[in-house]
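Fold this sequence, please.
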Amino acid sequence: METTTKQHCLPRIKSSYPLFSEKEKKVADYILENPNEIIHSTINQLAEDMGVAEATIFRFCKRLGFKGYQAMKIALASEVVSPMKDIHETIQEDDDEKDIAEKVFKSNIRTLEDTLQVFNKDHLQQAVDAILHANRTEFYGNGGSGIIAMDAHHKFMRTGLTTFAYQDSHFQMMSASQLTEKDAVVIISHSGANRDMLDTLEMVTEKGAVTIGITTLAKSPLSEKVDIPLYTVSQETDFRSEALASRLAQLSIIDALFVNVAKKRKERMNVSLQNIREAISRKRI
């Protein structure tokens, strides 16, 4: 995972929290409750205050993707010193439709900003190259993620590349059984722990196809097993789960992949686009 001082610390902690060990949750709770104190404390002071070993704190920082405690402090300081307005405000009883719409829009903006901060340039390039050189690329997702998979197929048809999308786990497994090492698969799963998706991933891996995962930043079986992980960051609100909030981030990652692939296939894509436009024109009166 690529880290810079501009990347958010608190969203990472909140996103990864369910998968932390008890000791890690203790460190996480302390940081979330006392961010101002952390930026003025040494790792030794923090360990003493919490009653844990310095190694525990160091490992926690590494788990978040930082090189060490100092790197985490710098990222945290940028949030505490120049705090962004909390856009995950609770919906109030007296909020009107405009108030609620504004909170939803701001929540979506925050999801995209947080996801952009954890974006890994090398992984994006690897994913683009894999799709460009694959005989065929398949997109798999269940439930809400299945809709993202279909959107990806809809976009990538314009590139002239051979793509497919499957939402049903049986179709996914059947299609995966026909893949080769010359193919690529994009698996979309917010939790990264969906049993059907992991079973399909196992089949894809056996066939040797390149695997790309679009999943939450939190450590998960999917993020650990795919060849190329692409992460999203989202937070849960009162009326919308974290998984639903992540959809815009997933769509944006698909868009980023599509535009990069389209740019590299500009001439061939123009032919595909022309064919598609001519075909669609027959549907118009």
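The longest strand covers residues 210-216. The beta strands are 137-141, 163-166, 184-188, 210-216, 228-232.
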